[in-house]
């Protein structure tokens, strides 16, 4: 993608929200629903490992 195209995309009104820009909805969809978790620390485990994968 060329810089002008990229800047046009991120300056669009729907991309001004940081959560939208980061596509948090897609990241959160990768996690199991709370009702399906077996252990109280499972959500923390998922978050830590998602962050490590993204880094």
- Fraction of residues in helices? 55-70%
Shape annotation: elongated
Quick one: biggest sheet?
none
Number of strands: 0
Radius of gyration: 15 Å
H/E topology pattern: HHHH
Tally of discrete structural domains: 1
| CA(first)-CA(last) distance | 22 Å
- Which whole number gives the mean pLDDT? 79
Uncertain runs are none
Strand content: under 5%
How many helices in DSSP terms? 4
SS class: mainly alpha
Please write out the topology.
Elements: H1 3-10, H2 18-21, H3 24-29, H4 42-54
Q: How would you briefly describe this protein structure?
A:
With 55 residues, the chain is an all-alpha fold. It has helices at residues 3-10, 18-21, 24-29, 42-54.
Report on the structure:
- The protein is mostly helical and 55 residues long.
- It is built from 4 helices and no strands.
- Helix content is 56%, strand content 0%.
- The chain is elongated, with a radius of gyration of 15 Å.
- It has one domain (3-54).
- The two termini are 22 Å apart.
């Amino acid at each position: 993608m060329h810089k002008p195209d990229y800047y046009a995309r991120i300056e669009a009104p729907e991309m001004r929200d940081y959560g939208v820009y980061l596509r948090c909805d897609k990241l959160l969809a990768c996690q199991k629903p709370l009702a399906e978790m077996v252990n109280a620390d499972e959500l923390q485990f998922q978050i830590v490992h998602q962050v490590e994968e993204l880094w």
